[in-house]
């Protein structure tokens, strides 16, 4: 279990406060233990933060928040009190996935920060949150992400026609649908026929499907392209 190291000034201040309690007839040991119990562990703070914040998230985001922390952070930080977790502790938690799962590592780092910020807002933590620069300095450098080369715009009609002439598969039609609607891949994968009006040639995306959480309607030439084939 992680322990917070007090500065000399903090230790003297604490000792003075406990002596005053003893002189007043109170049990300083019981008071010290009461204070320790009042500060939750990271594992408990994760549960509390999830319960308090999930109403503002989609179910998918809320589930991912909890699952990623329980898998990658709680095993190493779970028993530590939230007021003693520093940059070195977060580095220990992130190191195993820093290079093998870089995207997940970034998400877990952000979510650990959310939990600690929540703890600070609840009065469970006084210290500043772990500094992002310290975390980067203490972790292996991640490889620079690379984007796929974009297809030149003038080549798209020919590519589209070639793909449309091939075997009709769900994955191929999903790609063509995304091209015609300029939609995100996740929106296409989660689309349903109830959202599509073939006669009007429109696709109305509900708020739950949108990253912005706002519904959006758009014209769609996909059905016409299929019929033309």
Kindly describe this structure.
There is one protein chain. With 229 residues, this protein is mainly alpha-helical. The protein folds into 2 domains: 39-138, DNA polymerase, domain 1 (Orthogonal Bundle); 153-228, no CATH class. Helix content is 55%, strand content 4%. It has 12 helices and 3 strands; from the N terminus they run αααααααααααβββα. β1 and β2 (202-205) form a beta hairpin. The chain starts with 7 loop residues before the first helix and ends with a helix.
Describe what is shown at a glance.
By secondary structure, this protein is mainly alpha-helical. It is 55% helix and 4% strand.
Distance between the termini: 66 Å
Mean pLDDT: 82
Briefly note the CATH topology name of the largest domain.
DNA polymerase, domain 1
Number of continuous helical runs: 12
Described by the principal axes of the CA atoms, the overall outline is elongated
Give the domain tally.
2
| Adjacency order of strands in the biggest sheet | 1-2-3
The value of Rg in angstroms is 27 Å
Query: What is the number of strand segments?
Result: 3
Helical amount among residues, as a percent range? Answer: 40-55%
Top-tier CATH class of the largest domain = Mainly Alpha
Order of helices and strands: HHHHHHHHHHHEEEH
> Superfamily at the CATH H level of the largest domain?
Tyrosine recombinase, N-terminal domain
- Which percent range describes the beta-strand content? under 5%
Looking at the overall shape, the CATH architecture of the largest domain is: Orthogonal Bundle
- Provide the structure class: mainly alpha
Indicate the low-confidence ranges by residue numbers.
220-226
Sheet with the most strands?
3 strands, antiparallel
């Amino acid at each position: 279990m992680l322990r917070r190291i007090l500065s000399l000034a903090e230790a003297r201040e604490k000792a003075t406060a406990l002596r005053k309690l003893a002189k007043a007839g109170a049990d300083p040991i019981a008071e010290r233990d009461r204070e320790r119990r009042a500060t939750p562990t990271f594992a408990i703070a994760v549960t509390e933060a999830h319960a308090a914040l999930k109403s503002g998230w989609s179910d998918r985001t809320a589930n991912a928040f909890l699952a990623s922390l329980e898998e990658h952070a709680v095993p190493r930080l779970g028993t530590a009190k939230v007021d003693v977790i520093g940059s070195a502790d977060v580095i220990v938690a992130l190191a195993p996935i820093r290079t093998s799962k870089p995207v997940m590592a970034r998400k877990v780092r952000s979510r650990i920060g959310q939990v600690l910020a929540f703890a600070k807002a609840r009065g469970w933590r006084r210290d500043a949150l772990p500094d992002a620069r310290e975390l980067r300095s203490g972790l292996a450098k991640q490889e620079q992400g690379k984007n796929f080369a974009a297809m030149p715009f003038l080549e798209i009609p020919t590519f589209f026609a070639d793909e449309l002439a091939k075997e009709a598969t769900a994955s191929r039609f999903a790609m063509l649908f995304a091209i015609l609607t300029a939609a995100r891949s996740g929106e296409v994968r989660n689309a349903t026929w109830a959202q599509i009006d073939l006669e009007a040639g429109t696709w109305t995306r509900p708020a739950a499907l949108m990253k912005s959480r706002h519904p959006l309607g758009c014209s769609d030439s996909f059905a016409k392209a299929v019929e033309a084939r």
